[in-house]
Specification:
The structure holds 2 protein chains of 2 kinds. By secondary structure, chain A is mainly α. Chain A has helices at about 1-30, 45-50, 60-70, 85-120, 125-140, 145-155, 170-200, 205-210, 215-230, 230-245, 250-255, 260-270, 270-300. Chain A has a domain at about 90-300: MetI-like (MetI-like fold). Chain A contains 13 helices and no strands. Chain A starts with a helix and ends in a 7-residue tail after the last helix. Chain B has 2 domains: about 5-255, P-loop containing nucleotide triphosphate hydrolases (Rossmann fold, 3-Layer(aba) Sandwich), CATH 3.40.50; about 310-530, P-loop containing nucleotide triphosphate hydrolases (Rossmann fold, 3-Layer(aba) Sandwich). Helix content of chain B is about 35%, strand content about 25%. Chain B has 19 helices and 20 strands. In chain B, a hairpin with a 2-residue loop joins β1 and β2 (about 20-35). Classes of the chains: A mainly alpha, B alpha/beta. The interface of A and B includes residues 210, 214 and 223 of A. Chain B: It comes from Mesorhizobium sangaii. Chain B: It is found in: Cell inner membrane.
Chain lengths: ~300, ~550
């Protein structure tokens, strides 16, 4: 198992290299640059800035420099927020996004699994239809609708939650954004869980467990649920990578200083280093979580063995 | 033993399933009883309701099923017991083993864990005591090295061993009745015999009653004291096993008893041209390996096999699962890469690529075991059987293709109107006829039949065997007949190859092999399949 993990981490290096290379050159193909906005800098200042950041060097040289810095853990300065390095921006924003994302993911897995299981046990009965209706609503109503509705009801009308802001991470400030992030995920997990639980409940070994006179609790939780959890495990990998790296919409609507906004802002502003930093962070999260998922598979299912 | 005490009595049991097409009655008011310590067989073909009867008794019906009537176990109606009362009977007093040893154990828990759970539940033992008890049970069912096996997972065991574990679980709480639902159907014949002997031995030791649900009259003959014959949800005949075998009353019982395939096949003249020849054919599979993963494991599935098939000949390839018989069939058709020389007619096809093989494909066809999985569910029967014509006779008009479909369906004994319907509307036997029509429409010279009758009921098997024989006689076909079922092979093949672990252990003319098997493995196979001595006389 350890060997397998090491091997996977080793193969992550070429993967990251390919991602970094593609992102680097693709971004340069897009017209414009970090210093030609509409307001316009005078040509001299712009030339100075570009020279300072090495943007006049041949592209391959810039790439080599960037790679060299990256290997030393240096993501470079942000072009549009010159007071900060990219590393500083992530050091401030990433913990916030991770907190929100992890809470949302936890909530989604817990509630989604419970709802899905309830639906499966009541297949084609009222409980099932209720869960399916909620799940369909949850996955079709977009975040940018849910978020303002939460703000409106809980914030303005009932004054239970703050309308926005991070409030230094106070619990009450996290409720709105976490709920908004979690709702669609709860819906997805519930649907996944329902399907795989129905299948699991139909399997032959569940019939065996019933024939042995085991209690419903043991049949459902010990035998059916553990088998049904595998699709949820594989869903968790990409979902975690996406949730933990922040959401533009949620962070914008609730004024959360996370990293979700960076990707869009930086891309629009051609803030090359910040875009690259975001790409690298998301890539690392994706690779790591997929690895964790594969390891979890082996933990849940003894038939899965790596060596 | 109190031989006459009735412990289970099923009265006017009806089982209904709610489906989209309305309610379907699977069991139509049957009466069955089981006395202490006796062996009862419930016999029938698929769809007869024999399994659903026992599923209903155990409250294991699918969620759209409902049972009415009564199932009395020692004075209590199991159908009306509360769930918790029922769970004191299930797995304790009445227990059950199933047809599918590969999937009936939970793949995620160790054998020990799964054995201990029902013991603790029903007997209230602590973990250490239950562990001891589980070890005892594994010894009882002759699992070697039980200490180590307690920690094993189901996937680490063979089908026969898993069935032994199932039996151990069923016996854990000293049941009155063991219901065995086709307990050996999914196993190789030699393993079947071992499991049956084990059940007989355990019954002698423990004295429980056994209810056998089976389609296999061989098992009934060797095992049962009393027999119920079921057909379409009704019991059509019941009585002492001996009486039913000697003097069946109902036409259906007579038909079942006569359904054993009979006859034999004369070998072709020595001068008949050779259709297919393989010399030193070898197939090797790579397992694992790859980037940073080390050396792959090489598995030789077919090991230096030579075979020579003449026109109008049927070679039966016999062996248990994993013996390489299907792999050999596929390699000979060049559907798998192989080493060695393969000649088809006068052409060397050992190295022919896909393009070179394509024109030859119409002359070499393949029929598979599973008539349910091998026909596309989204094509009409007509489309399924004429698909090959589109490739091999592209000049035919739609009308001509349709005409050919009609001919092919007539030839396999199906109503030509079937061509506008979809495969799911047909029974297993009819689907196998469709699969055969799909092969025959191309007018092949060679047909590889990979377990074509294994998924079918005996009476249907017999019809398919007769159909294949007729087609062979009409068209001078050559068959490679791959099967683990010796009685079918005996009726079909004039020459037999016995395979084990990728090698030929014995080969020769059918009658020679059957009358005088030389190799120990062949003898074991024969004994397991043909022997009809009873394991147990009535208690």
């Amino acid at each position: 198992m350890l060997r397998y993990v090491l091997r996977r981490l080793l193969t992550a290096i070429p993967t990251l290299f390919v991602i970094v290379t593609m992102a680097f050159f693709l971004m340069r193909v897009a017209p414009g640059g970090p210093f030609n906005q509409e307001r316009g800098l005078s040509p001299e200042i712009r030339a100075n800035l570009e020279a300072q950041f090495g943007l006049n060097d041949p592209l391959w040289l810039q790439f080599v420099h960037y790679l060299g810095n990256l290997l030393r853990g240096n993501f470079g300065p942000s072009y549009n927020m010159p007071d900060f390095t990219v590393t500083e921006l992530f050091a401030k924003g990433l913990p916030i996004s991770v907190q929100l994302g992890a809470s949302a993911l936890f909530l989604a897995l817990l509630l989604g699994s419970v709802l899905g299981t309830v639906a499966a046990l009541n297949q084609n009965k009222l409980g099932d239809y209720t869960v399916i209706a909620l799940a369909t609503a949850g996955s079709t109503i977009p975040t940018f609708v849910i978020a303002p509705v939460i703000q409106l009801l809980f914030g303005l009308t009932w004054k239970l939650l703050p309308i926005g802001g991070w409030g230094d991470g106070a619990f009450i400030n996290k409720v709105g954004p976490v709920l908004t992030l979690a709702l669609p995920q709860i819906a997805i997990v519930a649907r996944l869980m329902r399907g795989s639980m129905i299948e699991s409940l139909r399997s032959h070994h569940i019939r065996t467990a019933r024939a042995l006179g085991l209690s419903d609790w043991s049949v459902v939780v010990k035998h059916a649920l553990r088998g049904a959890i595998l699709p949820i495990v594989s869903f968790t990998g990409p979902a975690a990578a996406a949730l933990l790296t922040g959401s533009v919409i949620v962070e914008t609507i609730f004024s959360i200083p996370g990293v979700g906004r960076y990707f869009v802002d930086a891309a629009l502003n051609r803030d090359y280093t910040l875009v690259m930093g975001t790409v690298v962070v998301i890539a690392i999260f994706t690779i790591v979580f997929n690895l964790i998922v594969d390891v979890m598979y082996a933990v849940v299912d003894p038939r899965v063995r790596y060596d | 033993m109190a031989a006459s005490e009735t412990i289970l009595s099923v009265k006017d049991l009806r089982v209904r399933f709610r489906t989209l097409d309305g309610a379907v009655e699977a069991v139509k008011g049957i009466n069955i009883h089981v006395d202490a310590g006796e062996t009862v067989a419930v016999v029938g073909e698929s769809g007869s309701g024999k399994s659903q009867t026992m599923m209903a008794a155990m409250s294991l019906l699918a969620s759209n099923g409902e049972a009415t009537g009564s199932v009395d176990y020692r004075g209590r109606n199991l159908l009306t017991l509360s769930k918790s009362e029922l769970n004191k009977v299930r797995g304790a007093k009445i227990s059950m083993i199933f047809q599918e040893p590969m999937t009936s154990l939970d793949p995620l828990y160790s054998i020990g864990n799964q054995l201990i759970e029902p013991i603790r539940r029903h007997r209230g033992l602590n973990a250490a005591e239950a562990h001891e008890e589980a070890l005892k049970l594994l010894r009882l069912v002759h699992i070697p090295d039980p200490e180590r096996r307690m920690k094993s997972y189901p996937h680490e065991m063979s089908g026969g061993q898993r069935q032994r574990v199932m039996i151990a679980m069923a016996l854990a709480n000293d049941p009155d009745i063991l219901i065995a639902d086709e307990p050996t159907t999914a196993l190789d014949v030699t393993i079947q015999a071992q499991i049956l002997m084990l059940l007989a031995e355990l019954q002698r030791k423990l004295g429980m009653a056994i209810v056998f649900i089976t389609h296999d009259l061989g098992i009934v003959r060797r095992f049962a004291d009393r027999v119920y014959v079921m057909r379409q949800g009704e019991v059509v005949e019941e009585g002492e096993a001996e009486a039913i075998f000697v003097n069946p009353q109902h036409a259906y019982t007579k038909m079942l008893l006569a359904a054993e395939p009979t006859g034999s096949k004369a070998p072709p003249p020595a001068s008949a041209p050779v259709v297919l020849e393989g010399r030193n054919v070898e197939v090797t599979f790579r397992i694992g390996g790859g980037f940073l993963a080390g050396e792959p494991l090489m598995l030789r599935a077919v090991d230096h096999i030579s075979i020579r098939l003449q026109r109008n000949q049927t070679i039966g390839i016999v062996g248990e699962s994993g013996s390489g018989k299907s792999t050999l069939g596929r390699a000979l058709l060049r559907l798998l890469p192989s080493d060695g020389v393969i000649r088809f007619g006068d052409r060397d096809i050992s190295t022919a690529n896909r393009q070179a093989m394509r024109p030859l494909r119409r002359e070499m066809q393949l029929v598979f075991q599973d008539p349910f999985g091998s026909l596309s569910p989204r094509m009409t029967v007509g489309q399924v059987i004429t698909e090959g014509l589109l490739v091999h006779e592209p000049n035919l008009s739609g009308k001509q293709r349709d005409q050919r479909a009609v001919e092919a369906l007539n030839e396999v004994g199906l109503d030509p109107n079937a061509r506008n319907r979809y495969p799911h509307e047909f029974s297993g036997g009819q689907r196998q006829r469709i699969a055969i029509a799909r092969a025959m429409i191309l007018k092949p010279k060679l047909v590889v039949l990979d377990e074509p009758t294994s998924a079918l009921d005996r009476s249907v098997q017999k019809q398919i065997v007769e159909l294949l024989r007729k087609l062979q006689a009409d068209h001078e076909l050559s068959y490679l007949f791959i099967s683990h079922d010796l009685s079918v092979v005996r009726a079909m093949a004039d020459y037999i190859i016995v395979m084990k672990q990728g090698k030929i252990v014995e080969e020769g003319p059918t009658e020679a092999i059957f009358s005088n098997p030389q190799h120990a493995y062949t003898q074991t196979l024969m004994a397991a399949a043909i022997d009809v001595t009873r394991f147990r006389l009535s208690a």
